[in-house]
Structure formats: structure tokens, C-alpha cells
Design goal:
The complex is a heterodimer. Chain A is mainly alpha-helical. Chain A contains 32 helices and 6 strands. In chain A, helix 23 crosses helix 26. Chain B has a 6-stranded mixed β-sheet, with helices on both faces. Chain B is of the alpha+beta class. Helix content of chain B is 25%, strand content 33%. In chain B, 40% of the residues are buried. The chains are: A mainly alpha, B alpha+beta. Chains A and B meet through helix 28, helix 29 and helix 32 of A and strand 6 and helix 2 of B.
């Protein structure tokens, strides 16, 4: 079959999919039933009817625009027109469909017109509509693909229909699930209770003493949350950068056998829920903590809550984010070419001089990057401030309390989210600038025969004396976090018990067979299944975007890349607020479902998949793709037969990472959980809120063990694959 | 008619970015081997990738066998390419690599296998079917890449610096093998290289490119003996350029030397490109002696290279680079010798 015919068939298939979905799938969102239950009802009631029936029998004629668009597209692919004619027809059809359906979707709500002006213009609409469901989603999907095909047929994307459709589809997804909710929630900052827009509302909410006050500097009262957030982010970023650099230098250049334990340390924050460190620190320094108890025993000091506050958050964040700085700096230290240092030494520089004049300047962009990443992470952190923050308010927790607290002020939450997003985006822009300007440290593919210089003794001593105790301290904190799950009541009754595990994970043999009687089972199963659903979508979408970014050229690529990595900069709390504000009304009504949690997981962790893919494509010679294309393979075949098999390790890494991050995320989903879909992390937060540390820590222990096993198992699987290749390579032919 | 370029231009980026290829025209006749030669950055690889369809030209027209392929993708042109890095798929064995193109174009399995075997035999690799690319030497990988390209029976075969990853000895035998295969199968080949001796050895036609333009196109003899510009002369034969004067009687005055150019040049200022092997080193001159038709030259440097000497002289024309086969002679730094140009190896171009 020649390529032109193959393309024709594929496009016909997409049109057919759209038409079938229009005719045979329930158009609107099914509130109560599953798709299977609803299918018999597509010819019947307004709840379950298909698009065809909705528009012909239920008084929703605006849905005809979808059918009209699909029919024009059908005409375009019926006979082999010239590329340009087909392109124009497809463009016309897909735009009619998309604009008609999306326009009506946003303009017509459950009770008729959404906007007053439309009511006065066209009169009252007798029937409204619900959120979009299966039928609508699939029709829109096929129309988006056909729009991509139209652009390709008109000559964009070098005529490659697959690339064009992929770009248009990914852009549409990013627009719907990242840009739209974030914008929508930020706009809420301008709206007052009656729904009127005004700059005044924003000013009233943002320009207040509570946000920008200087009370603490003037010696009276507290500082505004904005300053609190920035100050915390600054000290955390500085601390983690310094500590991460010392650790990286020590591990890479100190001639120690630290590499392995440090690698485990680097993995820890990935598999630990973000507040485990905070809990461990509470067990040490909290009111009932060992430190205070010892003080009381020795000196009779009354135990206080001195630990809660900026110092507590800072310490917890240091533990949580130093490994991230370490990973960044380790990469940069490895990237410093040893021959540069050898050159300096042959030019009569001493080791100390080489370190200050060559090694450190080469590390500078890496240091800046580590600092900025620490800054963003600290601002976005929610788990630690809420556990050990005490009276020290930061933006991410304030947003949370504005939504769930007694005030229930979505406008205030949106205004604070605007401030936080502004900060995060500013840092994100600076970080991209720094990374763009640091090309001289990138590792070339060429081998470097040099041997890395050992650290000057003085620097090594500094590394040892600061990073060494730190490592020890980290281990102690984690041990305490583990131990907390095994004692009766921390601080009062240190008897060993498995009671907390029993409360959470009890399994009983009842009259109906095995029953998961523990209180935590439900949230664990929910978390596992939702994360398992999100991980493949996230990894697949991330790798597809990485491929588009690495291997194709198209107009608007910079904007595309920017929005793909944007969710990294959007703090989780903001994303969570955005999702509830944007997706609790039609056309996309998802609040309260498991789907919205899955979507939140997917788009929150998308940058991880994109980055894993980008790193993998850097190692994959571009000429392999080109060779496959030269051998008459289509783009899709090339992806399937050459790129994907070679990318398997990256795919697995992306899968694991997005799965594990979904399991441990808390800030974004804390607004989205319902009684039906409670997650592990929110369950634990709830327990901590009740002062029930034993169960919380027992649950943390189980989570960490579970994720270690999963990560280890999948890595083992990847390792075996590489091993198989090596043994095959050694067999003589 | 094999490949034809009509006023093809290419720029990367927006309309204000510079043209990498600035409107080139050339023809690669069917069944011939044409090399595109030039220094790095001259646009030769871009040109090859435009033939392949991996880059779309900004303007102009490309046709292959009389069909306009300007807007076709690589898989829609009947073209194969051997990459500089070979680009063998590391997760497939040799036979899997070779039959890949047949598989994805829907050729029946047994036929694909048979044709892949034939193609492997053609490059002398029968019996290596089950090996992985990582288990092959550089030369063998090169042959697999060649077999993979040939198996599709393309109307045009492209080579992107195919020998640059091989050592010197292997390079020569591989070069001869490519030429031999091309002549035996009557293939139309476009071949990119920056090595002029490689180009001279394999080509029917050489196209020398300079900064996105074609400096000269012609047979190897044309380019070597009758360079059209100083750049081509310098690039083709490491010739050194001297300023001279063309006289009314058709001869050219070059310092004390007077030569008769092979092609008549208009009177006026000219440049003479003299290849290092054209100089004849004569007897040693006594102090101040100035014989007719001789250029006194003081030896500054000499390097022994086994079968010949490389000598650098200081003369009134400037430094002169000479290759001399007289390995027995006793060269001494500082001695003054008489240089002459007996005729061959000099080309004169107008300024």
C-alpha cells in the first residue's frame, strides 16, 4: 500500500471514529453510571442520549455543528483531492466542528446561556446542557487530529501528518488541562461575591498588610505571607545548594566509597511522602520529642513549641530538598572535564588555585540552577509548612486555608495563588535563562582520558566536617520516623507495639472470606489504582512531547516547550485550586470524580516525563531516526520500531517516576479528594491533624517500603534487559 | 537524468537568517558518481540532505529522474543514504537492519529475506546475519549500512562522508569497493566528502562548493589541472598562489620566472597557482648569483616523509612549499638553491 493511500485510509478512520462517537456514545457526562450501563440508553433520555439524539430530539441543535464539521472532513477524505484542496476542506471542517462545539460548550451551561449578554441578544434558551462526556470527548479528539492533518496537508510541519496531529493534540491537552484551569483560577482573583470583575477586588485582596506587611522588621507583629515565603525559599535554597554542593564534591572527588549510600540518599525524597521528614523532626524536637524531654529531665526546662515555625520548616525542607540539589550538583561536577583541571595544573596552578579558578567557575551555572530549583521547591512545598509551620504562614498553606478554612474565600485563594504563581514563574524564567547561558559545561560525547583532580585537602576537610554530620543526622531522622510507627505513644509510652499497623492495615477472616478491615486499606487501594492509571498516560505523553521537541521543527516550538514544562513552576497548591475552580462547571465537569485526580497526577508530573525523554533523546543519535525515514518507514513506524525499543529504559524510568510521584504528592490533590476517593497522603495528613502520629508514621513506613519494592523491581527488570544484550554481544557468531 | 538542482536555496530559521545554500544548479547524470567537495560549513551536507528529503529547500526545485520531488518526504523518494555514523539500529541484528526497509514497505517476508541475503552477499558479509552491529568492526558496519541502502534498489544512493570514521588503510579499500560496486550496478551516486584525494579517486564529476555556492564543477582532471579560481586551485592541490603579470605575448611573468600558461589569459594582473610537486629544485647557488629562469631560494625547513621530502623555502615571491622526491640528496637548512618551473602543475587564473 503506498503512503498516500495509507494516509487516506487513516484519515477516513478518524472521520469514522468521530461519526460513530457522535451517533453511538452518550454525549454528556454520566453522573452516576458507568459507560456500559449507559450504552443501552443512547436513543433514550436526555442524560444518556448520543449527540445525534440530543440534537434531533432533545432540543440541543447546537450539537449539529459537530456533525457538520465531521461531514465536511468526510468529504475531504472521500476522494484523493490534491493536498492543498484536501487541506483547506479539512481545515474548514475541523474548525466548524471545534468552534461550534467548544463555543457552545462554554456559552451554554446547565440552565441556559452562561453570559447575560447572550440572553438579551438571543432570548432565553429553553434547555441547557451538562458537562461533556464520552461522545463529546471522542468527537473533539477526532476533530483535533483532523485539524492537525489539515495543517500538514497545507504544508506546515513539513507535510508530516503524524507530527502535525501530535503537536496539535498535545497543545490542545496542555491548553485544556494546564493553561485553562490556571488562567481561570487566576481570573477569580478579580471577581467579587456577586460575580462582578474589577481591579479593586484584586487590589483589596493582594495589597494588604497580611500579604505584604513589614511587621516583623519594624518589631511589631508579623511579616506578610509573601515575605515569609520568599525568606523561607531564600534560606532553604541557599542551605540546600551549599549542602548539596559539599556532598557532591565529597562523593565525586573525595576518593571515598560514599557514592552508593549517597545515591540511596538521593533516591529518598522521591519515594518518601513530603512530610515524613517533618514528622521525624517532630518526634525529635516537638513538644513530646526526645530533645525537649532530655532538656526537661536534665535542666527542668518546660517543653515548648519552639521548634514550630520558620526554623522547623527550614530544617525539614533542608532534609527534603538537599538530595535534589545534590543530584543537580553531582551531574555538574561529573560534567567538569578533567582535562580542564589537568591543563590548569600543568600551567603551574596548585590544587587549591585550580579549584578556585577553574573548577568552581565551571560549577557556577550549576550552582545557580540548584539554587533556583531549591527556591521553586521551597515555595511550592505544602507538606512541611502545614506540619511544622506553626504560626509561620506561607503562601501555599494560606491558599489551602482560604479554601478549606472557616473563611471559604475562593477569591482570596485565587489572589494568593496569583502572587505565588507570579513568584514561581519569575524564578522559572530566571532558571531558564541560566540554563540557556551555561552551554560551556555540557558534556560532549567525546571521551575524556583525564583523571579528575582530587579535592584540595582544606576543601575536603570542610566537606567532611559539614556534610558528614548532616548525613548522620539524616539517617537519624529517618530512623525516628520509622520508629515512631512502632511505639505506643511517642513521648509518654515507649513500649513496642504493632497496634498502629493493625489499626491501619488489619486483615480479618470473616464469614465472607478475607476482609480488609484496616482503616487505611481503602485510601491505599485508591492511591495505587489512580497512580497506576496516571503513570502510563503521563510517561507516554511526556515522551511524545520530548520526541516532538527533540526531533521536529515547527513554528511555535518555544511556546510549546514552555507550556510543557510550565507545571513544574506552577506550585501544586495552585494547580489544585485551579482544578476545583475550573472543572466544577460545564463544559468540563470533573470535580469529585477519580478522573480529575488522575488528570491532576498526569499534568502535574508531565515535566518529569518530558525531561526523562529529553535526556534520553540527547543520547540517541538523530541519524537513527533519519536512517529509518530514508528506508521508507513512516514517522509512526519509525517511532514504533526504532525509537521506542531504544527508549525502553527512559520509558520505564518515566513510568516509575511518575507513578511514585503520584503516590507521594499531596499539595495538588488535597483539594480534589472526596470521601469516595481518599488518597494515602491526605489520609496521613488527616491523622497528623488529629495528633495520631503512630498510625501516620506506620502508614508512611508501609508506603516507603512499597515504593522501594516497586522501584527496585522495575529497575531490576530494566537491568536484566541490558544484561541480556551484553551476553548476546559476547556470543561468537 | 539523475538528480537535478534548479536554483535551490536553503536557510535555517526566519527570513532574516543567512542563506546556507545560495541558489545552486547542478546535474548528477544517471549512472555516474558525483562528489560534492568543500571545506566544512560550505553547505555540502545540507545539499545532500536536501537530495535525501531530510531538509526541505527554501526555494528552487529538485528533481530525481525527471520527477519533481521538492516537496516529497524522504520515504516518498526513491533514495537511499549511507550515514557518516552508519546509523545501524543497535537493537536489531545485521539481517534485521538490512531487511528493515523491505519490511516497512510491505515486501513479502520470504522475498525480503532473500533480497536481504543477496544484498549482504554483494558487500561480502554473507554469514554475518545474526550478529549485532556492536559485534562488527568499523569496516563491516560500513558494509552493512551499504547493504541496507542497496537492498531497496534506489534510483539514487547518497553517501555522507562514509569513510571519515575508518582508518587510513581501510579507507582506501572501502573507497575502491564503493567505486567498483557503483560501476558494476550502474548506480547514480551523490557523495559528500571534504577529502580531495578521495574525491579525485572515485568521481566521474566533482562539484566544489564554497560558502553556499558552487565554485566549480567538472571532471577530476578539469578541477585539478584547470581550476577556475584561486579557491579551487588551493583546495584541489594544496597549491600555493603567487601574484604575477600576464604579458601581451601570452606568457606570464612570475618574479624572475617566465612561464607559458596552458590556456591563454588576458594581459594584466593574474595569480598563478603552483602545486608543490611542480617545482624542480636545481643546483646550489653561490652568493649573489642570479641565473636566468631560476628563482633563488633559501631552505628554511625540511621534513623527511619516507618517499619524499617536504621543503619550505624563502624567496622573493614569499615562502614556497615544495615536495621533492630526491630523498637521497643532502638537504641543509640555510643553503640557497635554484628553483624552476618546468611546465606541468601550474595554473593561472585572472585576478
Amino acid at each position: 500500500m503506498n503512503p498516500a493511500l495509507r494516509l487516506q485510509r487513516a484519515l477516513q478512520g478518524w472521520v469514522l471514529l468521530g461519526l460513530l462517537s457522535f451517533a453511538l456514545l452518550p454525549w454528556y457526562f454520566l453522573q452516576q453510571m458507568s459507560l456500559m450501563d449507559a450504552l443501552p440508553g443512547i436513543w433514550a433520555g436526555a442524560e444518556t442520549a448520543s449527540g445525534w439524539v440530543q440534537s434531533s430530539g432533545h432540543g440541543r441543535p447546537w450539537l449539529w455543528s459537530g456533525l457538520a464539521g465531521l461531514l465536511v472532513c468526510g468529504l475531504a477524505v472521500l476522494v484523493p483531492w490534491t493536498a492543498r484542496t484536501q487541506g483547506w476542506l479539512l481545515l474548514l471542517g475541523s474548525l466548524i466542528g471545534l468552534l461550534g462545539l467548544l463555543g457552545s460548550g462554554f456559552a451554554i451551561g446547565a440552565t441556559g446561556w452562561v453570559f447575560e449578554s447572550l440572553t438579551t441578544l438571543w432570548g432565553v434558551l429553553p434547555t441547557g446542557q451538562y458537562g461533556m462526556g464520552w461522545g463529546a470527548a471522542l468527537v473533539l479528539f477526532s476533530l483535533v487530529v483532523l485539524l492537525g492533518a489539515a495543517l500538514a496537508r497545507l504544508g506546515a510541519f513539513r507535510g508530516d501528518v503524524f507530527v502535525a496531529s501530535a503537536v496539535v493534540l498535545c497543545s490542545a491537552l496542555l491548553a485544556l488541562f494546564v493553561v485553562y484551569p490556571v488562567l481561570r483560577s487566576l481570573v477569580a482573583a478579580w471577581v467579587d461575591d456577586t460575580g462582578a470583575y474589577a481591579w479593586m477586588h484584586l487590589l483589596e485582596r493582594v495589597a494588604t498588610e497580611r500579604v505584604w506587611g513589614f511587621g516583623c522588621v519594624q518589631g511589631a507583629g508579623r511579616c506578610g505571607v509573601a515575605w515569609n515565603t520568599l525568606w523561607l525559599a531564600f534560606i532553604t535554597a541557599t542551605g540546600t545548594t551549599v549542602m548539596g554542593t559539599l556532598l557532591a564534591l565529597w562523593a565525586e572527588r573525595g576518593n571515598t566509597r560514599l557514592a552508593k549510600p549517597l545515591n540511596i540518599l538521593a533516591m529518598l525524597p522521591i519515594i518518601t511522602p513530603p512530610f515524613v521528614v517533618g514528622l521525624g523532626l517532630i518526634l525529635l524536637f516537638g513538644r513530646a520529642g526526645l530533645f525537649n524531654q532530655a532538656l526537661e529531665w536534665a535542666f527542668g526546662v518546660e517543653p515548648g513549641r519552639w521548634f514550630y515555625g520558620v526554623f522547623g520548616i527550614w530544617l525539614a525542607q533542608m532534609f527534603a530538598f538537599t538530595p535534589i540539589a545534590f543530584m543537580i550538583m553531582r551531574g555538574v561536577v561529573q560534567g567538569v572535564s578533567p582535562s580542564m583541571e589537568e591543563a590548569a595544573q600543568t600551567l603551574r596552578a596548585s590544587r587549591m588555585q585550580t579549584f578556585w579558578t577553574v573548577t568552581l567557575p565551571l560549577l557556577k551555572p550549576g550552582l545557580a540552577n540548584a539554587f533556583l530549583v531549591g527556591f521553586i521547591e521551597s515555595m511550592a512545598d505544602f507538606g512541611n509548612p502545614i506540619i511544622v509551620g506553626g504560626q509561620y504562614a506561607v503562601l501555599s498553606t494560606e491558599i489551602f486555608f482560604a479554601i478549606v478554612g472557616a473563611a471559604l474565600d475562593p477569591g482570596m485563594a485565587a489572589a494568593l495563588a496569583l502572587v505565588l504563581t507570579g513568584f514561581a514563574l519569575a524564578v522559572f524564567f530566571v532558571q531558564r535563562q541560566v540554563l540557556a547561558g551555561s552551554s560551556f559545561t555540557t558534556v560532549s560525547g567525546k571521551g575524556d582520558a583525564g583523571v579528575a583532580m582530587a579535592l584540595p585537602p582544606a576543601v575536603l576537610r570542610v566537606c567532611r566536617s559539614i556534610a558528614g554530620p548532616w548525613l548522620l543526622f539524616t539517617v537519624v531522622v529517618y530512623l525516628f520516623a520509622f520508629a515512631g510507627g512502632f511505639v505506643q505513644t511517642w513521648g509518654r509510652d515507649f513500649t513496642f507495639t504493632l497496634g498502629h499497623f493493625k489499626t491501619a492495615f488489619d486483615v480479618q477472616l470473616g464469614e465472607f472470606g478475607w476482609v480488609f478491615a484496616g482503616t487505611a486499606w481503602k485510601s491505599l487501594f485508591t492511591t495505587l489504582s489512580l497512580s497506576a492509571m496516571a503513570a502510563p498516560i503521563c510517561a507516554g505523553l511526556g515522551l511524545l512531547m520530548a520526541w516532538l521537541l527533540a526531533r521536529t521543527e515547527f513554528r511555535g516550538k518555544a511556546a510549546f516547550e514552555f507550556s510543557a514544562l510550565l507545571t513544574f513552576a506552577i506550585p501544586g497548591t495552585v494547580l489544585g485550586v485551579s482544578y476545583i475552580l475550573a472543572f466544577n462547571v460545564s463544559p468540563v465537569e470533573l470535580t469529585g470524580t477519580g478522573l480529575v485526580i488522575v488528570l491532576c497526577f498526569v499534568f502535574r508530573n508531565l515535566p518529569v516525563g518530558v525531561r526523562a525523554g529529553t535526556a534520553a533523546f540527547k543520547q540517541l543519535d538523530r541519524s537513527l531516526d533519519e536512517a529509518s525515514q530514508m528506508l521508507r518507514a513512516s514517522t509512526l513506524t519509525t517511532l514504533r520500531r526504532v525509537v521506542l525499543p531504544l527508549l525502553k529504559p527512559a520509558l520505564v524510568a518515566a513510568l516509575v517516576y511518575s507513578f511514585v510521584r503520584s503516590m507521594t504528592t499531596v499539595s495538588a490533590v488535597i483539594f480534589l479528594v472526596t470521601a469516595q476517593y481518599e488518597l494515602a497522603t491526605t489520609y496521613i495528613i488527616g491523622r497528623v491533624g488529629n495528633g495520631d502520629y503512630g498510625v501516620a508514621l506506620a502508614y508512611c513506613t508501609v508506603l516507603m517500603l512499597l515504593m522501594s519494592v516497586i522501584t527496585w523491581g522495575i529497575q531490576k527488570l530494566v537491568g536484566q534487559r541490558q544484561l541480556g544484550r551484553r551476553t548476546a554481544a559476547s556470543t561468537p557468531a | 537524468m539523475g538528480i537535478q538542482f534548479k536554483q535551490v536555496t536553503k536557510r535555517y530559521g526566519g527570513a532574516d537568517s543567512p542563506l546556507v545554500v545560495q541558489g545552486i544548479d547542478f546535474v548528477v547524470p544517471k549512472g555516474s558518481l558525483t562528489t560534492i567537495l568543500g571545506p566544512s560549513g560550505c553547505g555540502k551536507t545540507t545539499t545532500l540532505r536536501m537530495i535525501a528529503g531530510l531538509e526541505a529547500p527554501t526555494g528552487g526545485q529538485i528533481s530525481i529522474d525527471g520527477v519533481d520531488v521538492t516537496h516529497l518526504g524522504p520515504s516518498e523518494r526513491n533514495v537511499s543514504m549511507v550515514f557518516q555514523s552508519y546509523a545501524l539500529f543497535p537493537h536489531m541484528n545485521v539481517i534485521g537492519n538490512v531487511r528493515y526497509g523491505l519490511d516497512v514497505s510491505g515486501v513479502h517476508k520470504t522475498e525480503a529475506l532473500e533480497r536481504a541475503h543477496k544484498s549482504l552477499a554483494l558487500v561480502g558479509l554473507a554469514g554475518y546475519e545474526e550478529r549485532l552491529p556492536s559485534e562488527l568492526s568499523g569496516g563491516q558496519q560500513q558494509r552493512v549500512a551499504l547493504a541496507r541502502a542497496l537492498v531497496l534498489e534506489p534510483s539514487v544512493l547518497l553517501f555522507d562522508e562514509p569513510l571519515s570514521n575508518l582508518d587510513a588503510r581501510l579507507r582506501r579499500s572501502m573507497r575502491d569497493e564503493i567505486r567498483h560496486l557503483q560501476q558494476r550496478l550502474g548506480l547514480t551516486v551523490a557523495y559528500v566528502t571534504h577529502d580531495q584525494s578521495e574525491a579525485l579517486a572515485v568521481s566521474d564529476q566533482i562539484i566544489v562548493m564554497e560558502a553556499g555556492r558552487i565554485a566549480q564543477a567538472g571532471t577530476p582532471q578539469d578541477l585539478y589541472e584547470r581550476p577556475a579560481s584561486a579557491f579551487v586551485a588551493g583546495f584541489m592541490g594544496e597549491a600555493v598562489l603567487f601574484d604575477g603579470q600576464s604579458l601581451a605575448d601570452g606568457s606570464v611573468q612570475l618574479g624572475p620566472l617566465r612561464l607559458l600558461p596552458r590556456h591563454p589569459v588576458a594581459p594584466g594582473a593574474v595569480r598563478a597557482a603552483v602545486r608543490p610537486e611542480a617545482w624542480l629544485v636545481g643546483r646550489e647557488l653561490a652568493g649573489g648569483e642570479q641565473p636566468a629562469q631560476m628563482l633563488p631560494a633559501q631552505l628554511k625547513q625540511c621534513a623527511y616523509l619516507g618517499s619524499f621530502f617536504e621543503l619550505t623555502f624563502e624567496t622573493e615571491l614569499g615562502p614556497v612549499f615544495v615536495v621533492s622526491p630526491e630523498v637521497e640528496r643532502d638537504w641543509r637548512i640555510g643553503q640557497v638553491l635554484a628553483l624552476s618551473l618546468p611546465g606541468q602543475g601550474v595554473s593561472v587564473v585572472a585576478v
